[in-house]
Amino acid sequence: MAFDIDMIKKVYANMTERVDAARDIVGKPLTLSEKILYSHLWDGKPTTAFTRGKDYVDFAPDRVACQDATAQMALLQFMQAGKPKVAVPTTVHCDHLIQAKDGAAADLKNANSTSSEVFNFLESVSNKYGIGFWKPGAGIIHQVVLENYAFPGGMMIGTDSHTVNAGGLGMVAIGVGGADAVDVMAGMAWELKFPKLIGVKLTGKLSGWTAPKDVILKVAEILTVKGGTGAIVEYFGPGATAMSCTGKGTICNMGAEIGATTSTFGYDESMERYLRATDREDVADAANKIKDYLTADAEVYANPEQYFDQVIEINLSELGPLLNGPFTPDLSTPVGKEMTEKATSNEWPLQVEWGLIGSCTNSSYEDLSRASSIAQQAIDKGLKMKAELGINPGSEQVRYTAERDGILGIFENLDAKIFTNACGPCIGQWARYSDPKNAPKNSIVHSFNRNFAKRADGNPNTHAFVASPELTAAIAVAGRLDFNPLTDKLINENGEEVMFDEPTGWELPPKGFEVKDNGYLEPVEDGSGVIINVNPDSERLELLEPFTPIGNSIKGAKLLIKAYGKCTTDHISMAGPWLRFRGHLDNIANNTLIGAVNAFNKKTNFVKNQLTGDYAGVPDTQREYKKAGILSVVVGDHNYGEGSSREHAAMQPRHLGVAAVIVKSFARIHETNLKKQGMLGLTFVNEADYDLIQEDDTFNFLDLNEFAPDKQLNVEVVHSDGSKDIISLNHTYNQAQIEWYNEGSALNLIKKQNA
Ligand code: F3S
SS3 for 62? Predict the structure, then answer.
């Protein structure tokens, strides 16, 4: 099941008919995004024109992909749905649970021993339910999907925010929580608010030091981490078609960092080349037959302002290399002088200690080859590395081919560590320090996508900057954050001044891709006899119990925490060492909101227990409320829950007894996850009401018995002095989602319907 050509041909046959019907109904030329959306309606041929940013629409995705950290909970949930097999092609990829420490061989061996229970569980559930399984070391989910499964015009969902990477091959690919994936795996429709559309016109051409990464770093600067919320970003123009397919993947990948639903590009020759190079001649042939359906109608790109909700234009010929960070991916600084000034005034360490190349964002053959051209120059010009260098190839196919072609050897000549084909430092799986909390202030540069505090190494004092692989390599050689490879000279071992030439590389391996064992396991045809064992004493896996409905009378709920500022899914359910408990709800719940900053004392994991007046950690305090049978409320700021798609960030508070999360605004995936788990995700009608919330507040919901679509809810907030405020709250629940709430969770409803 490398890929299913019959399924793809069926999608293409539907597409021609459905796109033509959609064009008639919408009454104007269509963007690529609309073509893909309208050809994947759950109800088949389009009969209605949907309003962008408003209508909830049921879709039928072609594929599902899960990574090992999120797959545990997704599969535990799927097991509860009572189905013999997954309804759509699904794959599981073991990439998150492998720590980077001593290098690939030792690290993989270690992961296979420490996480064998989880890997065995995922393998046997995959085998039983007809799911393709990619073993630890096979590669990072999104690189493997791009190489094997993504196809132009397709729609997929995945239990990871960077599923959007497959937009590089012309898909609409969207990161979802495990609960959404379970719906699709169980043969149900998948619901999404019809997205708005942002068009990005790329003129000019990338050259020299400027890479696809710089395009998305620039877009992140323009749109910020919130700017893409609720929208698909569609790239087009001569700059887009001139770029490699994997470069397009990089751009789509980091669309997650601007909050975009997804990003995509129209089918072009770079995609065809990539399909043929990755052994998918028949997909390329099938795509070529319906080319016009796999890109927007010509009129759209000629007059984009008329068809997109927002249009941005970037001239790639004028774009230079950028460094984004620290602590947020939208803070953009051009290389060189401006960085010197910013770093000095903000006290960012100018000395760089590590350069890391890899992650799903930038670990293609092209990325490694361009970065290696810089590494080779360092060797040729007698330069010594000033920082350490670590490499995570994106897949075994990329690794094997890069090794064969001498690319990895170049890095090794510079004493770089070649880590496993896995996420590694990108997800905090990096054994950099024995005591990260007390580790020193320092700067690192990486080609990953996320750079939130503590993300890579658990050290709150690590300033992480995001850059292209080639710039990361150059900065690692120079050891300085403000190194500008276009103008700056370095002193080599002979005391001579030398400069880097522009990076060079190959879009695709000149001798073709090669791999001995790609790490894929095909499931058995009939999995009914496969037994799945979960040890009841396991600390890593726990079978799920259905949630009890919260009900429509929430009175006397206590404020658990009023989160101040950024509260991402990393703050709500921290990654790093906690990844090991992803399959055990009660154990992982001990990290609930421990990264969120308490608005009343600006401390993390230090909140007032209203029953005792004492201050303690968030999970401990919440467990006290639960023991006393008291529900609680979490209050938050803007874009609450941005970051990843992990439904743990919703399941954990739910498991511990949080009834409602009230914020100024939500990140889309997290809001949906709260709904799926049968909780209330609500927003202040008047954002300033956030300021009314005090530390000892009690919440009485006044009209939850009238919970209905498009109808505000009201909550009475009782302060410690007895005074009260009535606060109005918005919600985005439609009738079906209110049913999830009423049943206790979406899964409870699926089970009821399957009974
Ligand atoms: Fe893995 Fe980092 Fe991508 S965690 S899936 S490499 S964003």
Answer: coil
How many domains, in total, are found in the chain?
A: 3
Among this protein's residues, is 96 annotated catalytic? yes
Residues 642 and 609 occupy one common structural domain: yes
Q: Which of 317, 348, 378 is the last residue of a domain?
A: 317
Q: What is the mean pLDDT of residues 301-326?
A: 98
The closest-lying atom of ligand 1 relative to the alpha carbon of residue 142 is 5
Average pLDDT, the chain: 96
Q: Does 646 sit in the ligand 1 pocket, CB within 6 Å?
A: no
From the candidates 18, 52, 63, 96, which is the catalytic residue? 96
Residue 515 lies in a domain: no
- Asked casually if ipTM beats, i.e. exceeds, 0.95, the reply is yes
Domain span at residue 210?
A: 5-317
Confirm or reject: Cβ of 314 under 6 Å from ligand 1: no
The verdict on 236 and 354 lying in the same domain is: no
Asked whether 449 lines ligand 1 (CB < 6 A), one says yes
Whether the CB of 140 sits within 6 Å of ligand 1: yes
Q: What is the DSSP letter of 480?
A: B
Classify residue 706: in a domain, yes or no.
yes
* pLDDT tens digit sequence for 366-385: 999 999 999 999 999 999 99
For residue 146, report the distance from its CA to the centre of ligand 1, in Å: 14
Q: What 3-state class would DSSP assign to 413?
A: helix
- Closest-CA residue, ligand 1 atom 2, reads 426
Task: Write out pLDDT tens, residues 409-435.
Answer: 999 999 999 999 999 999 988 999 999
What single DSSP character describes residue 9? H
Residue 290 included in any domain: yes
Residue 645 has pLDDT above 80, yes or no: no
Tell me which of 486, 519, 546 is where a domain ends: 486
- Three-class SS state of 49: coil
| Residue-wise pLDDT tens digits, 38-61 | 999 999 999 999 999 999 899 999
What is residue 398's predicted lDDT score, i.e. its pLDDT? 98
> For residue 2, what pLDDT is reported?
54
For residues 607 and 715, membership in a common domain is answered with yes
Mean pLDDT on 162-178: 96
Collect all residues with Cβ–Cβ distance below 8 Å to 292 and sequence separation of at least 6: none
Catalytic residue among 646, 655, 670, 731: 646
> What number does the ligand 1 atom closest to the CA of 165 have?
3
Q: What percent of the chain has pLDDT over 90?
A: 91
Sheet order of strands, 262-265 included: 262-265, 231-236, 196-203, 310-315
| pTM given for the model | 0.87
**Whether residue 3 has pLDDT greater than 80:** no
Residue 145 Cβ inside 6 Å of ligand 1? The answer reads: no
Taking the CB of residue 588, how many other CB atoms lie within 10 A of it?
26
Active-site residue (options: 142, 162, 450, 638)? 450
| Cβ–ligand 1 contact at 141 (below 6 Å) | yes
Task: State the pLDDT at residue 668.
Answer: 79
Task: Say whether both 429 and 338 belong to one domain.
Answer: yes
- The reply to whether 262 and 356 lie within a common domain is no
Contacts 24+ apart (CB under 8 A), 269-276: 269/241, 270/241, 270/243, 270/244, 270/245, 270/507, 271/152, 271/169, 271/170, 271/245, 273/245, 273/507, 273/508, 274/146, 274/169, 274/244, 274/245, 274/246, 274/508, 275/151, 275/169
Residue with the smallest CA separation from ligand 1 atom 1 is 423
**Which residue minimizes the CA distance to atom 4 of ligand 1?**
427
Q: Which of 62, 95, 367, 637 is catalytic?
A: 95
Compute the C-alpha angle 423/568/546, nearest 5°: 85
**Residue 342 reports pLDDT greater than 60:** yes
Residue 588 reports pLDDT greater than 70: yes
426 CA closest ligand 1 atom index: 2
Phi, psi angles (nearest 5°) of residue 608: -85, 130
Mark whether 646 is an active-site residue: yes
CA of 249 to the centre of ligand 1 (A): 13
For residue 526, being part of any structural domain is answered with no
Q: Give the pLDDT confidence of 666-709 residue by residue, as tens digits.
A: 997 899 999 999 999 999 999 999 999 999 999 999 999 999 99
Domain co-membership, 308 together with 414 = no
In the chain, % helix, strand, coil (3-state, to 5) comes to 40, 20, 45
Q: Are residues 112 and 261 in the same domain?
A: yes
Question: To test ligand 1's pocket by mutation, which of 423, 568, 579 has the most ligand atoms within 8 angstroms of CB?
Answer: 423
Is the model's pLDDT at 751 over the cut of 90?
no
Q: Give the CATH number of the domain where residue 686 resides.
A: 3.20.19.10
Q: Kindly report the CATH number assigned to the domain that includes residue 28.
A: 3.30.499.10
Q: Are residues 734 and 587 located together in one domain of the fold? A: yes
